[in-house]
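Protein modeling request. Please complete all fields; requests missing the sequence field cannot be processed.
Requester role: graduate student
Desired output: 3D structure, token encoding
Chains: 1
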Amino acid sequence: MQDSGTVTPEIEMKAIEYVNTGYQRILTFECKDGGFNWWEGDNPGNAILSAVGIMMLTDTKKIYDTVDDAVIKRTADYLMGVQKSDGSFTEEAHLHAGNENLGASSLRATCYITWALAYGGFKGEAAVTKAVSYIKSKLPSEKGAYTKAMCLNALIEAGDSSNLVTDGLAEFHKAAVIEDGKVHWTAGSDTLVNSYGDAADVEVTSLVAIAMASKGAYPQDVNGAVEWLVGTKDPQGNWGYNTQATVMALKTFLKALSLSPGETAADVAVFFNGEKLDAKKFDNFNKDVVWQVEVTSGLAAGEHIVELDFNGIGGLSYQVVATHYIPWEEAELPEGPLDIKVTYDTQTVHVDDIITATVTITNNDPDAKGMVLVTVGLPPGFQLVTADLASAQALKLISNFEVMGKQLILYFDSIPSGSPTKVSYSLVAQYPVKAQTGGSEAKYYYNAEVKAEEESQEVEVLP
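Delivered output (463 residues):
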């Protein structure tokens, strides 16, 4: 927002408050032996996540001068200390479902870590030079679009200007999928964090666009990629229902700000079924501001017409989203490899009684893989017994758990196909209440479109 000139003092104050809270939280994941890891207290660090840390802290420094350079330096030292003699880094397939590389060679890990080290200000270090040599030795034989795009970003950030970079960008230029002026690339395989499908295409398109923008090459491809990314935003305001895809899309937009965005001077009006809802003027100052117009009445079943009247110049983007609710018994549940059932050993208890809940997750597809996130509703009026979940974690039934308000979140490294995976926990009734347990959901962590849902149930606590 600073770069685009759209920040206000009120927004900046709130944003800095969030940045400060996030920064302090991130520091709690620094490991005793250096680097960062997935859970507080884990040691030693995870190389991929440590590279993510360098990227994030370096970005944060641009607007938050409280960031401690010593933290970045310690993380870089940790990474340089785990580099292999040939200049590569391991794929670090541990602690988090092995989702960082999915059994791919260490080239992806080396590219990402090299990119992070160079981005963090260590491009002159011998470790980066060795890693660049390793990448250049492997890139000519690499076939995957995603890995090649990652390699190009690493080489460009490290300052390499060899023909491998120019030839690689030219190859992507020729391979671009162009539709109505929008440009994207297909991944063709899983990504660094187990994304696939639409989310993977968002990631690879972002990587290619960032590489091109960094070299000032093929600006039309970059602009076309921005248009494609804007058009693929999901109704929740993210990309691919996926954290990493969203992060990469935002990085692409920030990078594209270095290109000429074009003049904007336009009057825009929104009509619904012929009735004018609202109008707004846009110029270079507010062209990146989100303007939300809601329709809350007149939405009976049938056809409706939304019209946008645009007068002026500029390339504004828009999105139309419709939401609705239907009774659970009429819902068409998503079909996919996952299935979730939540049962309670009784529906009626007295105060101070214990009720046992059992979560059963089934994977019906032997080829489905990746970390699974299960969110279970917790009924009001009950106290969760976390000792049960700690035992499940010790037995490796779950990798971790969190309680967020009235939701229990269970993390599974994977759900093996065949036999159902079951986790039970206890709840203590605290006061008389007739309550809904809250709906539950199981989904792949890095591809949330693949999910299963379970309806809420009713439990009653008697005096």
